[in-house]
Design brief:
Layout: E1 2-5, E2 9-14, H1 21-40, H2 50-80, E3 82-87, E4 92-101, E5 104-111, E6 115-121, H3 125-130, E7 132-139, E8 145-152, H4 154-198
Antiparallel strand pairs: 1-2, 2-3, 3-4, 4-5, 6-7, 7-8
Helix pairs in contact: 1-2
Length: 199
């Protein structure tokens, strides 16, 4: 959970970094497999030549670039796919920013005044080891629900969301109560207007 301040104060929620461990392990295993292939290539009995050496260097370089590129891409997806808890005098909401491609984002917003329930679920060995889990924010609006995946310290984040939702509902009730006297005063003034019209 990260405090982030631009023009508005907010809290950025990323997936737990442990989500990257399987990708990192796969890249390391592929790197080791490529290195072992290069080491044991002379044992295959192929005659060594500058041409063969050049091809080995070329494909080895492309293989290494592909592995590093896949690792960088997974990190970009992790970093640019996040959730934003916005708490300002104008709005209290949850924003979901999802990376769909290198140049495409999907942004959805859930007003926390519409939150009905917040559930936490922790599944898997890594989730229990590093203490992260999924948070399901159920809404009464058309959004349905937001799923925050692999969030660090999900119980604390759940409490924070419920706290903001309570404040948002209280603020909405105050705004509705603030509009009520205006309507009542207009209704109370209408008989006088009618009397004046018949005078």
């Amino acid at each position: 959970m990260e405090e982030h301040k631009h023009n508005q104060p907010s809290i950025i929620l990323h997936r737990h970094p442990a989500e990257l461990l399987p990708v990192i392990l796969m890249v390391l295993m592929a790197f080791l497999a490529g290195g072992l292939l290069v080491i044991f290539l002379p044992l295959l009995g192929l005659p060594f030549s500058p041409v063969l050496g050049g091809w080995v260097v070329l494909f080895g370089g492309l293989y290494l670039i592909g592995l590093l590129g896949s690792l960088v891409y997974e990190w970009m997806v992790w970093y640019l796919d996040f959730w934003l808890l916005v708490d300002t005098p104008d709005e209290i909401s949850l924003v979901d920013v999802e990376l769909l491609g290198f140049f495409r984002h999907r942004i959805a917003e859930l007003p926390l005044a519409a939150v009905q329930d917040v559930l936490v679920e922790r599944r898997g060995f890594l989730a229990n080891l590093f203490r992260y889990g999924d948070i399901r924010v159920q809404s009464a609006g058309k959004e349905g629900f937001f799923l925050l995946r692999s969030i660090s310290q999900p119980a604390k984040v759940r409490e924070r969301i419920l706290e903001l939702a309570s404040r948002a509902k209280a603020r909405l009730a105050e705004q509705q109560m603030g509009h009520a006297p205006t309507i009542a005063s207009q209704e109370a003034a209408s008989p006088d207007d009618e009397n004046l019209s018949h005078f």
